[in-house]
Amino acid sequence: MFIMAARRLRLSVVQSVVLVLIAIACTCAPPRAEAATRQSDPAADCAKLSRTDLASVSDVPAAIGSADYIPASSDMRGYCRVRGMIAPHIQYDLRLPDDWTGRYLQGGCGGFCGMIMIDQCAPGLARGFAVAASDLGHSGGAWVSPVWATDPQLRRDYGGRATHELAKISKIIIQIYYGEAPKRSYFQGCSTGGREGLQVAQNYPEDFDGIIAGDPAFPGRLSIWNTWIAQHLMDNGGAPVFSKAALEFLHAAVTDACDAKDGLKDGIIADPRRCSYDPQKIQCKPGRDGTDCLTAAQVAAARAMYDGARNSRGELLYPGAASRGSELDWDGPLMAHVSQEALRFLAFPTVRPAFTYRSFNWDRDEADVRATAGTYDAVEPGKAPDLSRFHARGGRLIAYHGFYDVGVPPGGIIDYYAQVWNREGGLAATKNWFRLFMVPGMFHCRGGDAPNTFDMLTQIVDWVEKDRAPNGIIATQYDKSGTVVRRRPLYAYPNVARFSGRGDPNDAANWNESPQVIGEDRVDWAWKPS
Q: Where does 13-218 sit in CATH, by number?
Protein backbone atom coordinates (compact mmCIF):
# COMPACT_ATOMS: atom_id res chain seq x y z
CA MET A 1 0.00 0.00 0.00
CA PHE A 2 1.26 3.48 -0.90
CA ILE A 3 4.60 1.97 -2.03
CA MET A 4 7.03 4.78 -2.82
CA ALA A 5 9.18 5.23 -5.86
CA ALA A 6 12.84 4.24 -6.17
CA ARG A 7 12.68 0.53 -5.60
CA ARG A 8 14.92 -1.95 -3.87
CA LEU A 9 13.62 -0.42 -0.65
CA ARG A 10 14.38 -2.24 2.55
CA LEU A 11 12.47 -1.88 5.73
CA SER A 12 14.62 0.34 7.94
CA VAL A 13 12.84 3.50 9.01
CA VAL A 14 15.69 5.72 7.84
CA GLN A 15 15.65 4.26 4.35
CA SER A 16 11.86 4.52 4.17
CA VAL A 17 11.82 8.17 5.18
CA VAL A 18 14.55 9.06 2.69
CA LEU A 19 12.71 7.25 -0.09
CA VAL A 20 9.41 8.96 0.64
CA LEU A 21 11.04 12.37 0.63
CA ILE A 22 12.60 11.62 -2.74
CA ALA A 23 9.46 10.10 -4.21
CA ILE A 24 7.01 12.85 -3.39
CA ALA A 25 9.34 15.83 -3.75
CA CYS A 26 8.00 18.67 -5.89
CA THR A 27 10.02 18.88 -9.09
CA CYS A 28 12.22 21.93 -8.86
CA ALA A 29 11.52 24.78 -11.24
CA PRO A 30 13.64 27.93 -11.61
CA PRO A 31 12.43 30.86 -9.54
CA ARG A 32 10.76 33.55 -11.59
CA ALA A 33 9.87 37.13 -10.86
CA GLU A 34 6.37 37.72 -9.49
CA ALA A 35 4.53 40.68 -8.04
CA ALA A 36 5.24 40.39 -4.34
CA THR A 37 4.05 41.55 -0.94
CA ARG A 38 7.09 42.70 1.06
CA GLN A 39 7.43 42.81 4.82
CA SER A 40 9.08 45.97 6.19
CA ASP A 41 10.76 44.03 9.01
CA PRO A 42 10.11 40.30 8.49
CA ALA A 43 12.21 39.19 11.47
CA ALA A 44 10.23 41.41 13.86
CA ASP A 45 6.91 40.44 12.27
CA CYS A 46 7.84 36.78 12.61
CA ALA A 47 8.69 37.16 16.29
CA LYS A 48 5.36 38.90 16.85
CA LEU A 49 3.55 36.01 15.15
CA SER A 50 4.78 33.59 17.81
CA ARG A 51 2.58 35.41 20.35
CA THR A 52 -0.61 35.09 18.28
CA ASP A 53 -3.59 33.36 19.89
CA LEU A 54 -5.19 31.27 17.14
CA ALA A 55 -7.96 29.99 19.41
CA SER A 56 -9.66 33.36 19.23
CA VAL A 57 -9.79 33.43 15.41
CA SER A 58 -10.38 29.79 14.45
CA ASP A 59 -13.30 27.42 14.95
CA VAL A 60 -10.80 24.57 15.36
CA PRO A 61 -8.49 24.60 18.39
CA ALA A 62 -5.02 25.36 17.06
CA ALA A 63 -1.84 26.94 18.36
CA ILE A 64 1.44 28.40 17.16
CA GLY A 65 4.26 26.75 19.06
CA SER A 66 7.12 28.73 17.55
CA ALA A 67 7.88 31.27 14.86
CA ASP A 68 11.51 31.68 13.84
CA TYR A 69 12.93 33.88 11.12
CA ILE A 70 15.29 32.09 8.71
CA PRO A 71 17.55 34.55 6.86
CA ALA A 72 18.02 34.31 3.09
CA SER A 73 20.69 31.98 1.74
CA SER A 74 22.28 31.58 -1.68
CA ASP A 75 19.42 29.38 -2.92
CA MET A 76 16.46 30.45 -0.78
CA ARG A 77 14.81 33.73 0.17
CA GLY A 78 14.32 34.52 3.84
CA TYR A 79 11.18 33.21 5.50
CA CYS A 80 9.29 32.94 8.77
CA ARG A 81 9.04 29.32 9.90
CA VAL A 82 5.89 28.66 11.92
CA ARG A 83 5.40 25.39 13.75
CA GLY A 84 2.36 24.42 15.76
CA MET A 85 -0.49 22.03 16.39
CA ILE A 86 -4.13 21.59 15.41
CA ALA A 87 -6.29 19.58 17.81
CA PRO A 88 -6.03 16.84 18.68
CA HIS A 89 -2.54 15.88 17.40
CA ILE A 90 -1.96 17.41 13.95
CA GLN A 91 1.50 18.99 13.85
CA TYR A 92 2.26 21.41 11.05
CA ASP A 93 5.06 23.48 9.54
CA LEU A 94 4.19 26.68 7.65
CA ARG A 95 6.81 28.83 5.92
CA LEU A 96 6.08 32.46 5.05
CA PRO A 97 8.57 33.94 2.57
CA ASP A 98 9.84 37.45 2.19
CA ASP A 99 8.49 38.96 -1.05
CA TRP A 100 5.39 36.76 -0.95
CA THR A 101 3.60 36.42 -4.30
CA GLY A 102 0.12 35.97 -2.82
CA ARG A 103 0.10 32.20 -3.40
CA TYR A 104 -0.25 29.30 -0.97
CA LEU A 105 1.03 25.77 -1.64
CA GLN A 106 0.23 22.80 0.59
CA GLY A 107 2.19 19.59 0.24
CA GLY A 108 0.90 16.07 0.78
CA CYS A 109 2.39 13.21 2.74
CA GLY A 110 3.45 9.63 1.97
CA GLY A 111 2.86 6.10 3.24
CA PHE A 112 1.39 5.99 6.73
CA CYS A 113 2.75 9.56 7.15
CA GLY A 114 3.60 10.53 10.75
CA MET A 115 6.17 13.09 9.62
CA ILE A 116 6.07 16.60 8.20
CA MET A 117 7.38 16.54 4.63
CA ILE A 118 7.69 20.29 4.23
CA ASP A 119 10.97 20.14 2.29
CA GLN A 120 9.11 18.75 -0.72
CA CYS A 121 7.75 22.24 -1.27
CA ALA A 122 11.10 24.04 -1.34
CA PRO A 123 10.62 24.89 -5.06
CA GLY A 124 7.37 26.63 -4.21
CA LEU A 125 8.98 28.54 -1.35
CA ALA A 126 11.81 29.60 -3.66
CA ARG A 127 9.20 31.03 -6.02
CA GLY A 128 7.52 33.07 -3.29
CA PHE A 129 4.70 30.72 -2.28
CA ALA A 130 3.76 30.40 1.38
CA VAL A 131 4.05 26.63 1.91
CA ALA A 132 2.83 24.18 4.53
CA ALA A 133 2.62 20.49 5.38
CA SER A 134 1.47 18.36 8.31
CA ASP A 135 2.01 14.90 9.75
CA LEU A 136 -1.70 14.06 9.12
CA GLY A 137 -2.37 13.88 12.83
CA HIS A 138 0.13 11.44 14.33
CA SER A 139 3.82 10.71 14.83
CA GLY A 140 5.50 7.71 13.24
CA GLY A 141 6.95 7.19 9.78
CA ALA A 142 6.15 6.04 6.28
CA TRP A 143 6.29 2.33 7.08
CA VAL A 144 6.30 2.36 10.88
CA SER A 145 3.46 0.31 12.36
CA PRO A 146 0.37 2.57 12.31
CA VAL A 147 -0.54 1.84 15.93
CA TRP A 148 -2.09 5.30 16.05
CA ALA A 149 -5.01 3.87 14.05
CA THR A 150 -6.39 2.37 17.26
CA ASP A 151 -7.85 5.87 17.82
CA PRO A 152 -10.91 6.60 15.60
CA GLN A 153 -10.18 10.34 15.59
CA LEU A 154 -6.66 9.79 14.32
CA ARG A 155 -8.07 7.59 11.57
CA ARG A 156 -10.35 10.45 10.52
CA ASP A 157 -7.49 12.93 10.60
CA TYR A 158 -5.35 10.68 8.40
CA GLY A 159 -8.36 10.07 6.19
CA GLY A 160 -8.78 13.70 5.18
CA ARG A 161 -9.56 16.01 8.09
CA ALA A 162 -5.92 16.99 8.68
CA THR A 163 -5.51 18.11 5.07
CA HIS A 164 -8.55 20.37 5.28
CA GLU A 165 -7.82 21.82 8.73
CA LEU A 166 -4.24 22.65 7.76
CA ALA A 167 -5.52 24.64 4.76
CA LYS A 168 -7.87 26.61 7.05
CA ILE A 169 -5.28 27.35 9.73
CA SER A 170 -2.54 28.22 7.22
CA LYS A 171 -4.75 30.77 5.51
CA ILE A 172 -5.64 32.36 8.85
CA ILE A 173 -1.95 32.72 9.76
CA ILE A 174 -1.13 34.08 6.30
CA GLN A 175 -3.88 36.71 6.71
CA ILE A 176 -2.45 37.73 10.08
CA TYR A 177 1.16 37.88 8.89
CA TYR A 178 0.76 39.62 5.54
CA GLY A 179 -2.49 41.46 6.18
CA GLU A 180 -4.21 39.71 3.29
CA ALA A 181 -5.40 36.23 2.38
CA PRO A 182 -3.84 34.16 -0.41
CA LYS A 183 -5.03 35.15 -3.87
CA ARG A 184 -4.57 31.58 -5.11
CA SER A 185 -4.16 28.29 -3.24
CA TYR A 186 -2.62 25.06 -4.54
CA PHE A 187 -2.11 21.50 -3.37
CA GLN A 188 0.54 19.06 -4.58
CA GLY A 189 1.17 15.49 -3.49
CA CYS A 190 1.91 11.97 -4.67
CA SER A 191 0.89 8.57 -3.29
CA THR A 192 -0.82 9.36 0.02
CA GLY A 193 -0.52 12.98 -1.08
CA GLY A 194 -2.27 12.14 -4.34
CA ARG A 195 -5.12 10.63 -2.38
CA GLU A 196 -5.27 13.77 -0.22
CA GLY A 197 -5.61 15.88 -3.35
CA LEU A 198 -8.56 13.90 -4.69
CA GLN A 199 -10.23 13.85 -1.27
CA VAL A 200 -10.05 17.59 -0.79
CA ALA A 201 -11.29 18.23 -4.35
CA GLN A 202 -14.42 16.23 -3.57
CA ASN A 203 -15.06 17.01 0.08
CA TYR A 204 -13.63 20.52 0.51
CA PRO A 205 -13.74 22.08 -2.97
CA GLU A 206 -13.24 25.63 -1.66
CA ASP A 207 -9.83 24.89 -0.15
CA PHE A 208 -7.72 24.98 -3.33
CA ASP A 209 -7.88 26.54 -6.78
CA GLY A 210 -5.49 24.02 -8.30
CA ILE A 211 -4.62 20.48 -7.27
CA ILE A 212 -1.87 18.10 -8.42
CA ALA A 213 -2.58 14.46 -7.50
CA GLY A 214 0.12 11.94 -8.39
CA ASP A 215 -0.26 8.14 -8.22
CA PRO A 216 -3.07 8.45 -5.65
CA ALA A 217 -3.01 5.66 -3.08
CA PHE A 218 -6.39 4.73 -1.56
CA PRO A 219 -5.60 2.86 1.69
CA GLY A 220 -8.80 0.79 1.78
CA ARG A 221 -8.70 -0.81 -1.63
CA LEU A 222 -4.90 -0.99 -1.55
CA SER A 223 -5.00 -3.05 1.64
CA ILE A 224 -6.50 -5.74 -0.55
CA TRP A 225 -4.23 -5.33 -3.56
CA ASN A 226 -1.04 -5.14 -1.48
CA THR A 227 -2.06 -8.29 0.38
CA TRP A 228 -2.54 -10.02 -2.98
CA ILE A 229 1.00 -8.97 -3.93
CA ALA A 230 2.42 -10.19 -0.63
CA GLN A 231 0.72 -13.58 -0.83
CA HIS A 232 1.94 -14.19 -4.39
CA LEU A 233 5.44 -12.72 -4.24
CA MET A 234 6.33 -14.42 -0.93
CA ASP A 235 6.32 -18.18 -0.40
CA ASN A 236 4.90 -19.93 2.65
CA GLY A 237 8.30 -19.86 4.31
CA GLY A 238 8.54 -16.09 4.06
CA ALA A 239 11.08 -16.01 1.21
CA PRO A 240 10.66 -14.07 -2.07
CA VAL A 241 9.32 -16.16 -4.94
CA PHE A 242 11.51 -14.26 -7.41
CA SER A 243 15.20 -13.56 -7.19
CA LYS A 244 16.49 -10.32 -8.67
CA ALA A 245 17.84 -12.29 -11.63
CA ALA A 246 14.47 -13.98 -12.21
CA LEU A 247 12.66 -10.61 -12.24
CA GLU A 248 15.21 -9.21 -14.68
CA PHE A 249 14.74 -12.26 -16.91
CA LEU A 250 10.95 -11.95 -16.82
CA HIS A 251 11.10 -8.22 -17.48
CA ALA A 252 13.42 -8.72 -20.45
CA ALA A 253 11.07 -11.31 -21.95
CA VAL A 254 8.01 -9.10 -21.51
CA THR A 255 9.77 -6.05 -22.90
CA ASP A 256 11.11 -7.96 -25.89
CA ALA A 257 7.59 -9.15 -26.72
CA CYS A 258 5.76 -5.84 -26.29
CA ASP A 259 8.21 -2.95 -26.56
CA ALA A 260 7.78 -2.32 -30.30
CA LYS A 261 3.97 -2.22 -30.18
CA ASP A 262 4.14 1.57 -29.76
CA GLY A 263 6.25 1.96 -32.91
CA LEU A 264 9.67 2.28 -31.27
CA LYS A 265 11.85 -0.35 -29.61
CA ASP A 266 13.35 1.70 -26.81
CA GLY A 267 12.96 -0.41 -23.66
CA ILE A 268 9.66 1.24 -22.67
CA ILE A 269 6.21 -0.29 -23.13
CA ALA A 270 4.27 2.93 -23.71
CA ASP A 271 0.86 1.47 -22.83
CA PRO A 272 1.09 -1.90 -21.02
CA ARG A 273 -2.63 -2.49 -21.56
CA ARG A 274 -1.75 -3.41 -25.14
CA CYS A 275 0.56 -6.19 -23.94
CA SER A 276 -0.81 -9.66 -23.12
CA TYR A 277 2.43 -11.61 -22.82
CA ASP A 278 2.00 -14.96 -21.01
CA PRO A 279 5.00 -15.88 -18.81
CA GLN A 280 4.25 -19.55 -19.34
CA LYS A 281 6.22 -19.15 -22.57
CA ILE A 282 9.42 -19.02 -20.52
CA GLN A 283 8.57 -21.70 -17.95
CA CYS A 284 11.34 -24.22 -17.33
CA LYS A 285 11.04 -27.58 -19.01
CA PRO A 286 10.70 -30.55 -16.65
CA GLY A 287 13.96 -31.17 -14.83
CA ARG A 288 15.33 -27.67 -15.42
CA ASP A 289 15.61 -24.80 -12.97
CA GLY A 290 18.01 -22.25 -14.36
CA THR A 291 18.44 -18.49 -14.81
CA ASP A 292 17.08 -18.66 -18.36
CA CYS A 293 13.59 -19.85 -17.43
CA LEU A 294 10.95 -19.49 -14.70
CA THR A 295 9.78 -22.17 -12.30
CA ALA A 296 6.14 -23.21 -12.29
CA ALA A 297 5.68 -21.29 -9.01
CA GLN A 298 7.16 -18.15 -10.55
CA VAL A 299 4.94 -18.41 -13.62
CA ALA A 300 1.88 -18.81 -11.40
CA ALA A 301 2.90 -15.79 -9.31
CA ALA A 302 3.46 -13.63 -12.41
CA ARG A 303 0.11 -14.61 -13.87
CA ALA A 304 -1.61 -13.71 -10.59
CA MET A 305 0.11 -10.32 -10.56
CA TYR A 306 -1.04 -9.53 -14.09
CA ASP A 307 -4.56 -10.87 -13.47
CA GLY A 308 -5.37 -8.90 -10.32
CA ALA A 309 -6.78 -9.61 -6.86
CA ARG A 310 -9.90 -11.79 -6.95
CA ASN A 311 -12.25 -13.50 -4.53
CA SER A 312 -13.47 -17.11 -4.78
CA ARG A 313 -16.13 -16.05 -7.30
CA GLY A 314 -13.54 -14.54 -9.62
CA GLU A 315 -14.59 -10.93 -8.97
CA LEU A 316 -11.90 -8.28 -9.21
CA LEU A 317 -11.21 -6.67 -5.83
CA TYR A 318 -9.12 -3.79 -7.19
CA PRO A 319 -9.70 -1.88 -10.45
CA GLY A 320 -6.36 -2.87 -11.94
CA ALA A 321 -3.37 -5.17 -11.67
CA ALA A 322 0.39 -5.16 -12.16
CA SER A 323 1.31 -3.81 -15.58
CA ARG A 324 3.43 -5.91 -17.87
CA GLY A 325 6.74 -4.09 -17.77
CA SER A 326 6.61 -3.33 -14.04
CA GLU A 327 8.51 -6.48 -12.98
CA LEU A 328 11.64 -4.68 -11.77
CA ASP A 329 9.44 -2.97 -9.19
CA TRP A 330 8.09 -6.19 -7.65
CA ASP A 331 9.33 -6.04 -4.06
CA GLY A 332 7.77 -8.92 -2.12
CA PRO A 333 9.41 -8.26 1.28
CA LEU A 334 8.35 -4.62 1.29
CA MET A 335 4.78 -5.43 0.30
CA ALA A 336 4.56 -8.17 2.94
CA HIS A 337 5.60 -5.65 5.59
CA VAL A 338 3.28 -2.88 4.40
CA SER A 339 0.35 -5.26 3.95
CA GLN A 340 0.73 -6.83 7.36
CA GLU A 341 1.01 -3.51 9.20
CA ALA A 342 -2.03 -2.11 7.40
CA LEU A 343 -4.09 -5.20 8.15
CA ARG A 344 -3.12 -5.25 11.82
CA PHE A 345 -4.00 -1.63 12.60
CA LEU A 346 -5.56 0.30 9.73
CA ALA A 347 -7.68 -1.76 7.38
CA PHE A 348 -10.38 -3.32 9.59
CA PRO A 349 -13.06 -1.68 11.75
CA THR A 350 -11.15 -2.83 14.84
CA VAL A 351 -7.45 -3.55 15.24
CA ARG A 352 -6.20 -7.13 14.90
CA PRO A 353 -2.64 -7.12 16.30
CA ALA A 354 -2.09 -10.84 15.70
CA PHE A 355 -3.35 -10.79 12.11
CA THR A 356 -0.99 -11.80 9.29
CA TYR A 357 -1.26 -11.23 5.56
CA ARG A 358 -1.18 -14.99 5.08
CA SER A 359 -4.43 -15.42 6.99
CA PHE A 360 -6.38 -12.92 4.83
CA ASN A 361 -9.57 -14.52 3.50
CA TRP A 362 -10.53 -13.14 0.07
CA ASP A 363 -14.26 -13.38 0.77
CA ARG A 364 -14.80 -12.74 4.47
CA ASP A 365 -11.98 -10.26 5.15
CA GLU A 366 -12.56 -8.25 1.99
CA ALA A 367 -16.01 -7.35 3.32
CA ASP A 368 -14.48 -6.07 6.58
CA VAL A 369 -11.99 -3.90 4.67
CA ARG A 370 -14.84 -2.52 2.60
CA ALA A 371 -16.63 -1.42 5.78
CA THR A 372 -13.66 0.77 6.75
CA ALA A 373 -12.48 2.02 3.36
CA GLY A 374 -14.75 5.07 3.34
CA THR A 375 -12.74 6.55 6.22
CA TYR A 376 -9.62 6.81 4.06
CA ASP A 377 -10.34 6.42 0.37
CA ALA A 378 -11.18 9.38 -1.84
CA VAL A 379 -14.17 7.39 -3.10
CA GLU A 380 -16.35 5.21 -0.90
CA PRO A 381 -17.03 1.62 -2.03
CA GLY A 382 -20.08 1.47 -4.28
CA LYS A 383 -19.98 5.18 -5.14
CA ALA A 384 -18.58 7.22 -8.01
CA PRO A 385 -16.32 10.23 -7.46
CA ASP A 386 -18.22 13.50 -7.38
CA LEU A 387 -16.11 16.54 -8.26
CA SER A 388 -19.06 18.63 -9.42
CA ARG A 389 -18.61 21.31 -6.76
CA PHE A 390 -14.88 21.64 -7.48
CA HIS A 391 -15.67 21.87 -11.19
CA ALA A 392 -18.46 24.40 -10.65
CA ARG A 393 -16.26 26.79 -8.69
CA GLY A 394 -13.61 26.80 -11.44
CA GLY A 395 -11.07 24.46 -9.84
CA ARG A 396 -8.32 22.88 -11.93
CA LEU A 397 -7.00 19.37 -11.35
CA ILE A 398 -3.98 17.55 -12.76
CA ALA A 399 -3.55 13.84 -12.03
CA TYR A 400 -0.59 11.77 -13.18
CA HIS A 401 0.38 8.14 -12.74
CA GLY A 402 3.30 5.87 -13.63
CA PHE A 403 2.30 3.05 -15.99
CA TYR A 404 4.84 0.77 -14.24
CA ASP A 405 3.53 1.52 -10.73
CA VAL A 406 2.91 -1.86 -9.08
CA GLY A 407 2.12 -0.75 -5.52
CA VAL A 408 -0.70 1.46 -6.80
CA PRO A 409 -1.66 -0.02 -10.19
CA PRO A 410 -2.53 2.56 -12.85
CA GLY A 411 -5.88 0.96 -13.61
CA GLY A 412 -7.25 2.67 -10.50
CA ILE A 413 -6.69 6.23 -11.72
CA ILE A 414 -7.89 5.40 -15.25
CA ASP A 415 -11.11 4.00 -13.79
CA TYR A 416 -11.43 7.06 -11.51
CA TYR A 417 -10.97 9.46 -14.42
CA ALA A 418 -13.52 7.58 -16.52
CA GLN A 419 -16.04 7.75 -13.68
CA VAL A 420 -15.53 11.52 -13.47
CA TRP A 421 -15.84 12.31 -17.17
CA ASN A 422 -18.86 10.06 -17.56
CA ARG A 423 -20.50 12.12 -14.81
CA GLU A 424 -19.24 15.56 -15.81
CA GLY A 425 -20.34 15.86 -19.44
CA GLY A 426 -17.89 13.68 -21.31
CA LEU A 427 -14.15 13.45 -21.82
CA ALA A 428 -13.73 16.58 -23.94
CA ALA A 429 -15.63 18.74 -21.46
CA THR A 430 -13.79 17.27 -18.48
CA LYS A 431 -10.39 18.02 -20.03
CA ASN A 432 -11.30 21.70 -19.74
CA TRP A 433 -10.71 21.49 -15.97
CA PHE A 434 -9.31 18.00 -15.15
CA ARG A 435 -6.52 16.28 -17.05
CA LEU A 436 -4.80 12.95 -16.52
CA PHE A 437 -1.23 12.25 -17.63
CA MET A 438 -0.02 8.64 -17.81
CA VAL A 439 3.76 8.33 -17.60
CA PRO A 440 5.21 5.40 -19.59
CA GLY A 441 7.83 3.35 -17.76
CA MET A 442 7.56 5.24 -14.45
CA PHE A 443 7.34 3.43 -11.12
CA HIS A 444 5.41 4.80 -8.15
CA CYS A 445 5.67 8.62 -8.22
CA ARG A 446 9.06 8.44 -9.94
CA GLY A 447 11.85 6.02 -10.84
CA GLY A 448 12.08 3.50 -13.62
CA ASP A 449 14.25 3.40 -16.75
CA ALA A 450 12.22 6.12 -18.44
CA PRO A 451 11.62 9.89 -18.32
CA ASN A 452 10.11 10.41 -14.86
CA THR A 453 10.87 13.97 -13.72
CA PHE A 454 8.57 16.86 -14.65
CA ASP A 455 7.34 20.20 -13.34
CA MET A 456 3.62 20.06 -12.61
CA LEU A 457 3.64 23.11 -10.34
CA THR A 458 4.26 25.52 -13.20
CA GLN A 459 1.58 23.71 -15.21
CA ILE A 460 -1.15 24.05 -12.58
CA VAL A 461 -0.32 27.72 -11.89
CA ASP A 462 -0.47 28.58 -15.58
CA TRP A 463 -3.76 26.72 -15.94
CA VAL A 464 -5.40 28.43 -12.96
CA GLU A 465 -4.03 31.92 -13.51
CA LYS A 466 -3.60 32.13 -17.28
CA ASP A 467 -6.14 29.54 -18.45
CA ARG A 468 -3.29 27.78 -20.23
CA ALA A 469 -4.27 24.09 -20.24
CA PRO A 470 -1.35 21.68 -19.73
CA ASN A 471 -0.29 19.44 -22.61
CA GLY A 472 2.99 18.21 -24.04
CA ILE A 473 4.61 18.40 -20.60
CA ILE A 474 8.29 17.53 -20.90
CA ALA A 475 9.45 14.58 -18.80
CA THR A 476 13.18 14.04 -18.33
CA GLN A 477 15.28 11.03 -17.36
CA TYR A 478 18.59 11.62 -15.61
CA ASP A 479 21.40 9.20 -14.85
CA LYS A 480 23.02 8.96 -11.42
CA SER A 481 25.37 11.83 -12.21
CA GLY A 482 22.51 14.14 -13.15
CA THR A 483 23.15 13.97 -16.88
CA VAL A 484 20.10 13.98 -19.13
CA VAL A 485 19.45 10.54 -20.68
CA ARG A 486 16.30 11.36 -22.65
CA ARG A 487 13.24 13.58 -22.76
CA ARG A 488 9.67 12.84 -23.83
CA PRO A 489 6.46 14.87 -23.92
CA LEU A 490 3.45 13.77 -21.86
CA TYR A 491 0.05 14.39 -23.43
CA ALA A 492 -3.34 14.58 -21.74
CA TYR A 493 -5.05 11.18 -21.60
CA PRO A 494 -6.03 9.38 -23.72
CA ASN A 495 -3.57 10.86 -26.22
CA VAL A 496 0.00 9.60 -26.28
CA ALA A 497 3.41 10.66 -27.57
CA ARG A 498 4.48 9.02 -30.82
CA PHE A 499 8.00 9.12 -32.26
CA SER A 500 8.06 10.96 -35.58
CA GLY A 501 10.54 8.52 -37.07
CA ARG A 502 13.08 11.30 -37.66
CA GLY A 503 15.98 12.48 -35.58
CA ASP A 504 17.05 11.41 -32.10
CA PRO A 505 14.27 9.56 -30.21
CA ASN A 506 15.78 10.83 -26.96
CA ASP A 507 14.92 14.40 -27.95
CA ALA A 508 11.36 15.45 -27.05
CA ALA A 509 11.20 17.65 -30.14
CA ASN A 510 11.01 14.53 -32.29
CA TRP A 511 7.78 13.29 -30.72
CA ASN A 512 4.22 14.25 -31.68
CA GLU A 513 0.81 13.98 -30.06
CA SER A 514 -1.13 10.94 -31.23
CA PRO A 515 -4.89 10.99 -30.59
CA GLN A 516 -6.28 7.75 -29.17
CA VAL A 517 -9.83 6.46 -29.25
CA ILE A 518 -10.86 4.82 -25.99
CA GLY A 519 -13.67 2.48 -25.14
CA GLU A 520 -15.16 1.80 -21.72
CA ASP A 521 -12.46 2.66 -19.18
CA ARG A 522 -14.73 2.06 -16.18
CA VAL A 523 -13.75 -1.22 -14.55
CA ASP A 524 -16.19 -3.96 -13.60
CA TRP A 525 -15.00 -4.72 -10.07
CA ALA A 526 -16.45 -5.50 -6.66
CA TRP A 527 -16.59 -1.90 -5.37
CA LYS A 528 -17.76 -0.24 -8.57
CA PRO A 529 -20.54 2.38 -8.31
CA SER A 530 -23.92 0.75 -7.85
A: 3.40.50
